[in-house]
Amino acid sequence: xxxxxxxxxxxxxxxxxxxxxxxxxxxxxxxxxxxxxxxxxxxxxxxxxxxxxxxxxxxxxxxxxxxxxxxxxxxxxxxxxxxxxxxxxxxxxxxxxxxxxxxxxxxxxxxxxxxxxxxxxxxxxxxxxxxxxxxxxxxxxxxxxxxxxxxxxxxxxxxxxxxxxxxxxxxxxxxxxxxxxxxxxxxxxxxxxxxxxxxxxxxxxxxxxxxxxxxxxxxxxxxxxxxxxxxxxxxxxxxxxxxxxxxxxxxxxxxxxxxxxxxxxxxxxxxxxxxxxxxxxxxxxxxxxxxxxxxxxxxxxxxxxxxxxxxxxxxxxxxxxxxxxxxxxxxxxxxxxxxxxxxxxxxxxxxxxxxxxxxxxxxxxxxxxxxxxxxxx
Length: 377
What we know:
alpha/beta; Rossmann fold; single chain; globular; eight-stranded mixed beta sheet; disordered N terminus
């Protein structure tokens, strides 16, 4: 069960939004090799941060936006940053962790691959006197000093709300629905599911909706498509709506629907607002996504790390004005949680105007006319 405390003043994140847009704009200026370190801006300085990203496959965000946004923030602060990607390999994750600790980083920020390997890394950092930040995913049992992410139960709630909205638009007050969840080793997947399950519970309890399938897609398009096809067959094709826990998996599900001439006829949710997901929303084959402005997340995390490196714990604690309960240890982790936003056809333009992606990437080929129709430019 997830328990949250503390205030999350909207003005805090509103004030970050303008900075976040600038960070996204600057991100286009360059990137780094996904496997190596990035930035030597602090050469000769004792101020150093280590960042371990998880992979480059479960979402394009890690290399496309998180890396450059974090690097720029640390460069601007005159702090040396070592940003590496574990490539989905737990052994490599551990090796990178050890290397960063031995190199003398003052703050270690990680996106775990799972809580076991992530916890091992964080405990080594703590033993070395290094402050740690769980970035995007809470490492259960890890004891991170701080946690920076989106309000992930709210992300799930928006997906559940979106499915109901899309079914209502289709005139379906009674529906068979299925859940395609994220990777069970990822705490975020549990948070997302807690959100959409709670949002849809009244509909299920009343008998308006019947949950006829509930499987993991492991953040993978093919696995999600296979899971959906199995449930589709088991239910004799009688599935009216799908909660897909991210856009990557939604793509695999929509492909299976298209094979049965049902794409655009069965609402499918998603989250991450990736380019392909936005294109499907414009086309009407995916009903919505949840937009998480990762520039705001990177801004909050980098500010927190910079405050800690500069010895300003009071400022760091003021930023982390919320808590998230680690259900393994039972302890509250100081947290900065950023609100997400639901995106439908008429609000795809918001993602573009924020600079999260560009019209050149989304409005290609058949989507150009749809972009014009929905004011995307």
